[in-house]
Amino acid sequence: MIRKASIKDLNTCIILFKQSVKTLCLKDYTQKQIKMWIKIDKEKWEEKFKNNDVFIYEKEGKIASFISIINCQKILDLLFTHPNFIKQGLAQNLLDFALKNYLYKEIYTFASLSAKDFFLKNNFKIVRENEVKRNDQILKNFLMKKEI
To answer: Is 8 helix (H, G, I), strand (E, B) or coil?
Structure first.
């Protein structure tokens, strides 16, 4: 079941995000990079949940996946699935759901090395490689764009 997220979902989504990155990104990023990636600012995430379109996919009574879109910036900000629920189409269903009523002709995302292929399969094109510095770690990702 897909539903709009509420601020009550924040802590569960943060835990899901951390578990997802720690488990699903190991082949693409080092332990140090992952440690910096999951070091988040909870206040910024609270703002995301208050001001952006955030949708949750619940399965078996648990939050299994979530997506966040910043409409005014045309950015797909977050899309993460719990490791116990991967390869079940949840991220695909959330992406399709979120874009069904999307108002703009294009959307952008910064896709990790681990997520790049998912977005390529969904007709996102690579605009450029990108590097994000987190303390002493450099994390590579890709600015990608999809025409709607």
So the answer is: helix
